[in-house]
Amino acid sequence: MADILLVAASGLARETLASVRDAGTDRVVGILDDDPALAGTTVSGVPVLGPAALAAQRSERLLLCPGQGAARIALAARLADLGVGAERYAVHVHPSVVIGAGSAVGAGSILLAGCVLTCDVTVGEHVVLMPRTVLTHDDELADGVTCAAGVTLAGRVRVGERAYLGMQTSVRQDVRVGADATLGMGAVVLRDVPPGRTWVGAPAAELRRDRAGGPALPHPRPVGVLPLLTSHGRIRVP
Ligand SMILES: CC(C)(COP(=O)(O)OP(=O)(O)OC[C@H]1O[C@@H](n2cnc3c(N)ncnc32)[C@H](O)[C@@H]1OP(=O)(O)O)[C@@H](O)C(=O)NCCC(=O)NCCS
Question: Which of 75, 79, 141, 236 could form a disulfide with 84 if both were Cys (CB 3.0 to 4.6 A apart)?
Answer without folding.
Answer: 79
